[in-house]
Amino acid sequence: MWRPSLPVSLRAALGAAPLSSAGTPRALEGKVALVTAGTDGIGVGVAEALGVAGARVFISSRRAQNVQRAVEQLRGRGLQVSGVPCHVGRAEERERMVQAALDTFGAIDILVSNAAVNPHFGPALEADESTWDKVFQVNVTAAAMLVRLVVPHMEKRGGGAIILMSSIAGYQPMTGLAPYSVSKAALLALVAALSPELLPRGIRVNGVAPGLIRTRFSAALWQDEAVRERALKELGVERLGTPQEVAQAVLFLASPQAAYVAGQTLLVAGGARPRL
Ligand SMILES: NC(=O)c1ccc[n+]([C@@H]2O[C@H](COP(=O)([O-])OP(=O)(O)OC[C@H]3O[C@@H](n4cnc5c(N)ncnc54)[C@H](OP(=O)(O)O)[C@@H]3O)[C@@H](O)[C@H]2O)c1
Questions:
Q1: pLDDT in tens, 51-94
Q2: Is the pTM of this model over 0.70?
Q3: Which residue's alpha carbon is nearest to atom 46 within ligand 1?
Q4: Domain residues of the chain, as ranges?
Q5: Fewer C-beta neighbours within 10 Å, C or N terminus of the chain?
Q6: Pocket test residue of 40, 96, 141, 182 for ligand 1, highest count of atoms within 8 A of CB
Q7: In the predicted model, is pLDDT for residue 6 greater than 90?
């Protein structure tokens, strides 16, 4: 019978999920996950879902008290969680975070790059250069630099999974959110650019693009009823999503169930369709 000949590491990255693991609730037993912006909203939902699936989870965000609160909250659910503060836009803090995750749990198998900022709401032409720089530094460059930091450690483990948090705004730029939307489109391209480089090294890179999710980050788009209706109509979705609904997509992409999925960004957006 003809079989395609694949490099060994590619077999590892695309290796068929063991039948026994299909649908098991502990699909990430023995794995270590690093989740940025893991203290609130989607990030804490992701940390919880990965932890419930058996992973040890290392979380971070800028504020120490947020990290402490989220760690306690997740440990209270019986999950193995630790964390440190880290502003992902600062190189030395990213390095400290990765080292702290290694010191705490001994490995990194999964990276969920989830942190983002949106300091500008208004016409694109009113966003100045420092705004564009800040958005790209935190939303795009930091994600690429984090990938560089974790890849050698994933290779030591024989492979890994990386998930970059994009947005529906990356597929259909949202009114008033030009720098943010463009940065999220860049993450779609970053997934596509990294995947062919990292798949032969045993690492699957994918993205998740949430629609409008009920979190503090997006409150300006859903708290006021008229604004909310306009945003939902613009996106083409019926309702707001939940952090848990996004977390389940991340869990799938991080797990062996997604062994044959690489270089994709999954829209988790209540039926919204890409328009770019
Ligand atoms: N909510 C939505 O509708 C929606 C839709 C599409 C995509 N997304 C994406 O989902 C991700 C999470 O958003 P969310 O809605 O869950 O936000 P959220 O609930 O407001 O949480 C934001 C998190 O980011 C942390 N954070 C902010 N700036 C950071 C930085 N520079 N470095 C590290 N951590 C930072 C915050 O903690 P500290 O304050 O302690 O730093 C907090 O944990 C973002 O990438 C966002 O673009 C959200």
A1: 999 999 999 999 999 999 999 999 999 999 999 999 999 999 99
A2: yes
A3: 116
A4: 26-216+242-268
A5: N
A6: 40
A7: no
Question: Which string of DSSP letters, residue by residue, matches the chain?
Answer: -------HHHHHHHPPPPGGGTT-TTTTTT-EEEEETTTSHHHHHHHHHHHHTT-EEEEEES-HHHHHHHHHHHHTTT--EEEEE--TT-HHHHHHHHHHHHHHHS---EEEE--------B-GGG--HHHHHHHHIIIIIHHHHHHHHHHHHHHHTT-EEEEEE--HHHHSPPTTBHHHHHHHHHHHHHHHHHHHHHGGGTEEEEEEEE-SB-SSTTHHHHSSHHHHHHHHHHHT-SS-B-HHHHHHHHHHHHSGGGTT--S-EEEESTT-----
What pLDDT, on the 0 to 100 scale, is given for residue 274? 86
pLDDT band at 23 (very low <50, low <70, confident <90, very high): low
- CA of 217 from ligand 1 middle (Å) equals 6
pLDDT at 1 (0 to 100): 38
pLDDT tens track for 121-143: 999 999 999 999 999 999 999 99
